[in-house]
């Protein structure tokens, strides 16, 4: 159950999550940050650190932002 960064990150990119992630699996990607779904160890540190509440466990992403689950995955597949 990786964590996912959703819409509130866009245009904000506060970066607090990057600083707290123990495995450095949060990457900068243009309009927002992204969490690598295979590298995330589900520690929840980023979720608590995010000032705009953009981060959710993949099974807890609000309905309107569910496409961000795929957007996070796609970002790494395009690399
Ligand atoms: Fe990193 Fe933990 Fe957030 Fe996963 S849940 S992205 S390991 S801080």
From TrEMBL:
This is Ferredoxin. Keywords: 4Fe-4S, Electron transport, Iron, Iron-sulfur, Metal-binding, Transport. Ferredoxins are iron-sulfur proteins that transfer electrons in a wide variety of metabolic reactions. It comes from Eiseniibacteriota bacterium. Pfam families: Fer4. Residues 31-60 form the 4Fe-4S ferredoxin-type domain. GO terms for molecular function: 4 iron, 4 sulfur cluster binding; electron transfer activity; metal ion binding. It comes from the Bacteria. Its cofactor is [4Fe-4S] cluster; [3Fe-4S] cluster.
């Amino acid at each position: 159950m990786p964590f996912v960064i959703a819409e509130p990150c866009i245009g904000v990119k506060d970066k607090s999550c990057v600083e707290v992630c123990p495995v450095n699996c949060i990457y900068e990607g243009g309009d927002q940050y992204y969490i690598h779904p295979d590298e995330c160890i589900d520690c929840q540190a980023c979720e608590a650190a995010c000032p705009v509440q953009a981060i959710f466990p993949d099974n807890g992403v609000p309905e309107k932002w569910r496409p961000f689950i795929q957007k996070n995955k796609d970002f790494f597949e395009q690399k």
